[in-house]
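Consider this today:
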Amino acid sequence: MLITLPLFLWLKKGSGQRLLWQMASLCEHRGGVLLFFLPLALLKCLLAPIFPREHDWADFILQMAFFALGFILFGDERFLRAVRRDWWLLLAAGTVIVLSLLGMYLMGFPVMEWSGTPGIVQFSVLQMFISAIALCYSLATIFVGMRFLNFTNNWLRYAQEAVLPFFVVHQPVIIVIAFFVVQWNTGTPIKLPIVVLSSFMVSVGLYELMVRRIRPLRLVFGMKVSRASKA
């Protein structure tokens, strides 16, 4: 957030507003919203060979670019209109790429080896595919939210407040539980649902019993401090 703040402030000024207007004008054409793929793919192709490991700087910067994209999408109503109009195209494009990669893998193409070999053409092509999948499904998910979650109730208000704390705590919970479960003398079909279900329940429990109810923890997780929360 702090890194991208100067960009956001610039986009709210004259030259930044003009750039947003030009980008939104391009998105008024069918499929124009897919132009966001170009900077994402460029970042991925430039950084992935240097930082090929998962959760390294390449992933950090790409995810920060998606964070900035979220700000941009709400900077002009035409972006969201384009998402509403082209949701089927976004969903179809992402699905076609996923099925194509799966088909290549099943036919014996060394897709996994390509993904771990920076410097070859196939590696860069895969990075572009990954960027396209991430963009298409992210925008399609935004459409789903606009279309089917354009209301509020107690469950949505609860989930809206819980989403960030749950996201933060679930990863260490998964690691701790999986550390013990993977050592069991049983198969993956048994281990996987145990890890998934138990991690979900523990994460929700930590949020409900601790983060949500303890005032200092609410502050740490950026939540509003309610009068009912415990000191």
Summary: The chain has eleven helices and no strands. The chain has two domains: 5-148, 154-220. The longest helix spans residues 121-148.
